[in-house]
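User: Hello, can you help with two protein structures?

Assistant: Certainly.
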Amino acid sequence: MTAAAFDFHGAGLLADASGALYWPAKETLAVADLHLEKGSAFAANGTLLPPYDSRETLRRLQAVLRRHRPRRVICLGDSFHDTDAAGRLPAEDAATLCRLTKAHEWIWITGNHDPDAPADLGGIAAREFRADRLVFRHEAAAHAAGEVSGHFHPKASVPARGRAVGGRCFVTDGDRLILPAFGAYAGGLDVRDPAIEELLGSEYTVLILGRARVHAFRRSRMLRVEAPRLL
């Protein structure tokens, strides 16, 4: 699996095809919107989904950690689908997460779904994290430069051979960088939706996740796809 290299506010970053962001100079890896235990939350409300989303998300997270071997991991909020989600984690998955938080400097950025970090899974909680000219937070703030965030679960579509292709994506206008959702059951919001586009400059780049590589496109190539917001 390959990653796309790009510069952002003086930092050389890698957009990994998994949806993770890696900053080699700081040995820092960031992921957004894990939404652990979303499946069990839906099941409690009568929508039955296979109850393996947390395990799949953690499996993918372990794979990207082995690939890049970061010293620091930043989870950009909504790591847990709700305030009770950590308590619903199966014992095996909770043990896996504890091993990961012990092996790395682990920062839980708080989000709208998880305003409080779990007390017994390791790591530290913060509203934001700053390093050099970059600031990591859950949701984009007004007039922020050098901001890395999540929350919107961006996805994009482009025309190819008479049909639309696409998927989850990174999106950046040079001042902001919004990460794709990493969670197995996380939905997506099209980048052409006003909720995202109003945050960005008139031109921006999307980095669409492929099976084994990341594909870069300018805004002018994007298709507008109407879809429900699944945040």
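That covers the first. Now for the second protein you mentioned:
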Amino acid sequence: MPTLTVEGKGLFQVPAGKRLVNALVDECGSDQLHACGGVARCTTCRVEFVAGEPAAMTQAEKDVLAAKGITTPGVRLSCQIACNADMTVRVISRLEGSGRKDCGHRPVDEIQPPPAWV
């Protein structure tokens, strides 16, 4: 099981292959936003990688980050990442302070849309 380290929260064991957005909520107890339901449309599920950033990216993630003008190194969409190795992240898009009524409806277990890796 990969170790997910969340700055300010601790270290957590997560099931291999689990979507990062769901691991942040389920295993880490984070109030990570995911307003679009984890389909790479809204960018509310952004995290910043401190270590262990995956090299692969889905085309959907690449496209939405470019469309929103997000170019900060290490900032990625947690809905488009599977926990397949140890990683350390900073949660930068949380319900607390967002003014939203909730985090969004739960993303399904599989990465959506079906990933085309780039």
